[in-house]
């Protein structure tokens, strides 16, 4: 869910290729004949599921990046190199199929008319699995997701070395959790929505209680968007009543940026709450998994409630703003809003102390006994 380094999501142009044009693109740029192709839902890029005609019938995702992000090749290179690095480290991350020229990406015109916009194109290996959004999550997979979030950030921060990594210092990037105060300029998109007051309260509390503490948090590289549609799982064992899941895919690195470890766990908690039948219980399981790899400091734990609330605010406000610009994509853009408002209101009605007590007591229980492997 990205829109460049800048804090103006409205300047991007989402690609709009048809399936025939996309298939021709795969042939022209990557030298692969397409057996079948279908469009996939996306936020501000365009994605296609592709099966090649070649022997083995390999499957890929054709990713066509929006016009604004396409102007930042170093950033896309950093994201793609990070995916390749994580795959080499044993994480279930996609890797690029190289172009006919041997490159990992190619800048291509949307059509053949003079002055048409250019889009960065990549062909990534297709990862099998079911999005977390489509399963009934249990404590075991929530713990695994927390552990994954910490492990990804830790290995990227400690071992990922590539010249393009400097492009991950993204300053005013609207989806970086440090930039919750920038939501002020988009809050108009909520209209006189009855929930607007709680978003305004989140932003004000964030400015006062989180921003001054940032320097005490431990810095790292964040994936930045481990949401319930960007984590794929498959059922590895267990019973129908209590399935055991493993993560089979990590998708969408377009929100990568330098941030803080505590940002990643807050983002994961928020998105795992979305489809949960018991959303307030989710945080403790995710936190326990995260802290099994990267234990949080007292300052980081103390900011967790407002960081989770801040991510709800980002998601709800930016989606409302983007849906005004692209009403034809409103259903996909507002997936989070369907339950997000309710969860944010519940958190504020219960209050920080009660919510933290629930999270921290659940996480504490894991230190007495480890979860099933």
TrEMBL record:
Residue ranges of every copy of the Aminoglycoside phosphotransferase domain listed in the record: 38-279
Residue ranges that the Swiss-Prot or TrEMBL entry lists as coiled coil: none
The protein's name in its UniProt record: Hydroxylysine kinase
Lineage of source species: Eukaryota, Metazoa, Chordata, Craniata, Vertebrata
Species this chain originates from: Malurus cyaneus samueli
UniProt key word Iron-sulfur: no
Enzyme category, top tier: transferase
Localization: Cytoplasm
GO CC annotation: cytoplasm
């Amino acid at each position: 869910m990205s829109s460049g380094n800048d804090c103006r999501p409205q300047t991007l142009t989402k690609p709009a290729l048809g399936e025939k044009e996309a298939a021709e693109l795969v042939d022209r740029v990557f030298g692969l004949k397409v057996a079948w192709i279908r469009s996939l839902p996306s936020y501000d890029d365009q994605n296609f599921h592709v099966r090649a005609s070649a022997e083995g019938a390999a499957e890929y995702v054709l990713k066509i990046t929006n016009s604004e992000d396409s102007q930042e090749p170093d950033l896309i290179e950093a994201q793609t190199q990070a995916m390749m690095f994580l795959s080499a480290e044993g994480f279930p991350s996609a890797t690029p199929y190289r172009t006919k020229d041997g490159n990992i990406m190619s800048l291509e015109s949307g059509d053949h008319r003079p002055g048409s916009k250019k889009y960065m194109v990549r062909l990534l290996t297709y990862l099998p699995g079911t999005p977390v959004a489509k399963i009934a999550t249990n404590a075991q997979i929530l713990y695994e997701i927390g552990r994954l979030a910490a492990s990804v950030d830790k290995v990227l921060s400690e071992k990922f070395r590539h010249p393009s990594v400097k492009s991950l210092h993204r300053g005013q990037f609207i989806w970086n959790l440090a930039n919750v105060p920038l939501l002020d300029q988009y809050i108009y998109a909520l209209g006189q929505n009855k929930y607007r007051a709680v978003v305004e309260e989140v932003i004000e509390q964030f400015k006062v209680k989180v921003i001054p503490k940032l320097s005490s948090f431990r810095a790292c590289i964040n994936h930045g968007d481990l949401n319930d549609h960007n984590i794929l799982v498959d059922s590895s064992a267990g019973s129908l009543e209590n399935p055991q899941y493993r993560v089979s895919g990590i998708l969408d690195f377009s929100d990568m940026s330098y941030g803080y470890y505590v940002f990643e766990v807050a983002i994961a908690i928020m998105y795992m709450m979305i489809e949960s039948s018991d959303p307030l219980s989710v945080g403790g399981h995710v936190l326990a998994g995260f802290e099994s790899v990267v234990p949080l400091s007292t300052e980081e734990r103390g900011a967790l409630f407002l960081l989770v609330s801040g991510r709800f605010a980002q998601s709800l406000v930016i989606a409302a703003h983007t849906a005004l610009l692209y009403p034809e994509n409103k259903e996909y853009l507002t997936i989070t809003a369907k339950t997000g408002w309710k969860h944010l209101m519940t958190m504020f009605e219960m209050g920080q102390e009660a919510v933290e007590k629930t999270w921290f007591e659940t996480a504490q229980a894991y230190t007495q006994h480890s979860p099933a492997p």
